[in-house]
Amino acid sequence: MHFKRISVTAVRAFVRVGPLILIAALWQLVCGTGLVNREFLPAPVSVAIAFADLFSGGDIAKNLLVTLYRAAAGLALGTICGVWIGLMMARSEKFRAYVTPIVGGTYSLPKSALIPLFALWFGIGNVTAIAAVFLACLLPMIVNTYHGVVATPKVLVWSAETLGTAKHELLAHVFLRNALPDIFTGLRIALGFSFVLAISAEMIASTNGIGKLIFMFGENGTYDYMFAAIACVVVVAFLADRAMLAVTRYSLRWHESAVSRLDERRA
Amino acid sequence: MSQNIKSLHVNWRSAASIFVLLLIWELAARAHLTPPLFLPPFSSVADQLWHSLADGTLATDLALSLGRAFAGLILATLLGVFIGLLMARNRFAEWLIDPLVALGFPSPKIAFIPIFVLWFGIASLSKILLVAFACIFPIVIGSYSAARSISHVFLWSAMSLGSDRKSLFLHIILPACYPRIFTTFRVAVPVSLITTFTAEMVAGGGGMGATLIYSQRFFESPTVFAYILVMLGVGLLLDLTMVQFQKHFLRWAEI
To answer: Is the Cβ pair B231, A234 closer than 8 Å?
Structure first.
């Protein structure tokens, strides 16, 4: 019984990745026939060999860790500050009045435009990348937290108050709890931004990190290595996104509609 | 009436907040709290903005960047809506494309810029295609889920009234998807701007991003600030335009 279920899952997984295998096979075939210049499109096999080489040499791990550190640090800072600002905006009308034009103005600014400015201020390296990631993650966290907190039903607040919840406990136990699905929505957007900004910052102003690595391989003309590094980024971003979904699902398991919405939205 | 006073009050605070911010900026720069290289006074940024406007460099850069962004966006919308609707109506297409979308959607598209430069050069084509590549995933997902969530009652009614496949598609499925497609289009617009600017910063080839990065390398800080302000204004303006568009043309939809 158990074994059967596993084999069904395995078959399903195989059917799902089938197109990817098909495309890789076609790609290899096209490269084999010599229809395209192998300089421009390295075959999957040589990309795989390059990947193995990068992996065993430690280049991938070293630069990937640098990038992940920058993305994670910016994401964490942006989340903490964003949730706090969003909560404040929702609870205090005065604070909202002062902050709204700044949030509204920076919301539509392409955050990567600030990378040259940060490079000017903080030099080349970690701080520039983390600052860019931080700002990019801050805005979706503010906006989503704000909407979640504002939408808290009055009934919940009243019930908590009649049951003797103190004012400072209301924030964490009622308002933030009610905003949790929205906060996770923001977090998923911010996670995507964190990768984009970390890699952009590395391509523009850095001496290490996976973005710089990709860029260097491109400049040197070692395209099989470049493809391998890009494939690595795609896989890592995909896994991070799936991990975020799993965490969201686990944290919101008490929230029926949020979880069912999540399943519906899954691409 | 009291509502009016209240909103006036809020507006007063908002305006004050922007004004104070600019004032602090100007005073901090004039007092030389930081080197002018790091923070030129707002007045000199405004001055530079005026110069760039007058000699036409800003207009050229802006036109080039916006042209790239819109070309990529339109390409992504046409292709993305087509693919999304096809996936919703055809199981083979769904099987074939779904894993690609699942893998491509969360990936940072800017990492692909060296490939696009390698294949399509550093001029406009590589940027347009990268923008299309970056924007197509949310549009495919949006139009796919929009087409999947059409009420069967609509389809059945149309069919029982004698619609053939073509008019079913043109008059029922596509219009029913408009609001959701527009929502994803709104998501894609800032993506197209970000991708264009970043691609120009990384790969050069003219445009807002390229000028921004050159100014930074030559330490022309007022130009850096002026261009960032313009990018901010463009983003804001586009978003406002889309809100207005939605209000006028998609009033019938409850989004």
So the answer is: no
